[in-house]
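[Q] Does anyone have a clean structure-token version of this?
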Amino acid sequence: YVGFERCYDCLMDDVRAEKMRHGPCLQWSAAGNVIRGSTFIQSDAQWHAGWTNENLYEQCVIDAATGSGSYGNGFWASPPEDAAHGPNGPRNVIYNCDTLAPKIGLWMGGMNQGWMILHNRFVCGTGAGIFMKTNSDGHVIRGNVFAIKNPKASAIQISTEDCDGVIAEKNTVFGAAQLLSGKGKLALDRDNSLQPAMENPPRPSPEVPSIFEWQRRQKP
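[A] Here you go.
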């Protein structure tokens, strides 16, 4: 794995890793960490275990191709029913990343609260752009680009009815027939756009490319 466990307020920057199974990867209470500006080939990004919370992945390029242990989803967060790993905690952030996933772009197993998924590109093979279940609540999904290769898949799949307060706005979806599927509902669906399929649509260009650099500039 490439990442942090039992680490707090740490920084990983400008790393390239190939065939490392899970990367970037956080586990066992890791909190306040930043993994940024890095490239991960044939590995998936994970919050792997132990209630990781308030971490930032930004400006990462992730090719989650299988063959070295990647699950095939661009990002994956362990579910509460997994007795060996448990769920992952609140306020994790994915910002301005670029992800190529054979399956789903972001898979959230549940009990995730208040995640922010902002200005990313998700190129997804067989599944949805973002999947969530089991009390996965209060997320903000804004300004992303989704390229959905399976026309039967959606940009967002809320699999269980207990996922509340999810906001989706200003996302552009290529190739999917619908923004939302599953048993759950969105608290807000605003300014989202469905477009014809495109293999590699342009990445978003947020006004603030890096939260990490912006925050450092605010220090007196």
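[Q] Thanks! Anything notable?
[A] The first helix runs from residue 211 to 218.
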